[in-house]
Write a structure and sequence with these properties.
Blueprint (H helix, E strand, L loop, with lengths): L1 E8 L9 E4 L4 E3 L4 H17 L17 E5 L11 E7 L6 H9 L3 E6 L3 H10 L4 E7 L13 E5 L15 E4 L4 H17 L5 E4 L3 H13 L4 H4 L2 E2 L12 H18 L1
Parallel strand pairs: 6-7, 6-9, 7-8, 9-10, 10-11
Antiparallel strand pairs: 1-2, 1-5, 2-3, 4-5
Length: about 260
């Protein structure tokens, strides 16, 4: 059974769209934990037990706004949040998987990651647990790991900046290749796309203020204005995190992306 937060009012554990999958034994995902989740899982398993052979389920369970369970967190569950949640329960069969995958990933933020170095590898692992879709690019062969998070796809692109025109609209771009020359070319390609389409809400470049000062001069020589250059974020990562280990940088950068997702 798929449990989805259909709507909510007041203070609640999770937002609309949060989901979990419940099996007869075990579960994946979460709709907020605590008594709410315990009660929802119990309802889901009752419905699974009522249809042990996987027979057809009434259409109401598949229709938006129907098959809903309402939980008043304070009065009915004794949770201090005090809000109200409506959960939708739907049976999922193998035939539903393509539709389900498209539905659950439709609102994931697209991230374009350029660079398969230490920070890139660490960042992909962090992003693997977040509501994003990662397109990972590098110009080098055999740089990508054999095992990837489910939300990540990889592409060898040489020259690497050739991938920029193909990015999904709304992509959050992170640039951290092995080469400053490649970084510069990717930044320039992103600026050109912004000039024409203006559909990349965030373009972040790893590096120091000194690196960015050098890049600014070179990009100005290529004809980019101060207003255009202001669209580039460098250094990247939330302020106040000073560690330079790849895993630390990855957490700081992922937090910065989540700030943009929340504000959007």
């Amino acid at each position: 059974m798929l449990i989805t937060v259909h709507s909510s009012r007041g203070s609640v554990p999770r937002e609309a769209g949060a989901w979990m999958g419940v099996f007869k034994e075990g579960a994946v995902g979460t709709v907020g934990g605590g008594h709410l989740e315990f009660a929802a899982m119990a309802q889901a398993r009752l419905r699974l037990d009522a249809d042990p052979q996987g027979a057809a389920v009434p259409a109401a369970l598949h229709a938006p706004g129907e098959g809903l369970l309402r939980f008043a967190l304070g009065p009915s569950l004794g949770q201090c949040c005090g809000g109200e949640v409506q959960l939708q329960l739907e049976r999922v069969t193998r035939a539903d998987l393509p539709r389900l995958q498209a539905r659950l990933t439709a609102h994931q933020m697209p991230v374009a990651l350029f660079g398969g170095g230490h920070v890139g590898h660490a960042l992909v692992q962090v992003l693997g647990h977040l509501p994003v879709r990662v397109n990972w690019f590098d110009s080098r062969h055999e740089i990508f790991p054999t095992q990837l998070p489910a939300n990540t796809t990889v592409e060898h692109s040489d020259p690497v900046q050739a991938a920029v025109p193909t990015l999904p609209a709304g992509s959050q771009v992170l640039i951290m290749s092995f080469s400053h020359a490649e970084d510069l070319d990717v930044v320039a390609a992103c600026l050109l796309r912004l000039r024409v389409q203006d559909d990349l809400p965030f373009v972040g470049l790893i590096g120091s203020k000194t690196k960015w000062a050098t890049f600014r001069h070179r990009l100005q020589a290529r004809g980019f204005s101060e207003q255009e250059l202001a669209r580039i974020t460098c250094p990247i990562g939330v302020p106040g995190i000073s560690g330079k280990a790849p895993e630390v940088i990855a957490v700081a950068v992922a937090a910065q992306l989540l700030q943009g997702l929340t504000q959007g």
